[in-house]
Amino acid sequence: MRKCAEAGPEALEKRIEELDQEWDLDRVLMANASTLSLLGFAASRAVSRRWLVLPGVVSSFLLWHALQGWCPPLPVFRKLGYRTRREIDAEKYALKALRGDFAGVTPRRPDQAWEGAQR
Fold first, then answer.
1. How many H helices and E strands in the chain?
2. Is 37 in contact with 53 (CB distance < 8 Å)?
């Protein structure tokens, strides 16, 4: 963040746009699970019914993630650099604050915070 702030407004704008496009952990997990499930179903039709184990395992991981907030693939995705939506948004709104989007927000005009967030 410091690097962007020192580089100027154009760098802040560019980084905010990059953050808008960044995939979060949940999105990566869902895309990965969908891909593996479809591959498992296709392989069960083309190769062997044993491939149906793959969609079963993947579905159980998704359920585990929904109930507990964690599943075995998450540490791998973390090591690959994926972040949670909360982490991405924290950086994004810190950059927006540096850019001055929330400068006019006061306790008397809290609606201005919403206007700054929409920018």
1. 7, 0
2. no
Torsion sign over Cα 96, 98, 101, 106: positive
For 10-14, which contacts have Cβ atoms below 8 Å and span 24 or more sequence positions? 12/95, 12/98, 12/99, 13/99
pLDDT digits (tens, 9 = 90+) for 5-31: 788 888 899 999 999 999 999 999 999
Q: Report whether 85 contacts 24 (CB < 8 A).
A: yes
State the Cα–Cα distance between residues 85 and 83, nearest whole angstrom: 7
pLDDT at 79 over 80: yes
- Predicted structure pTM score: 0.79
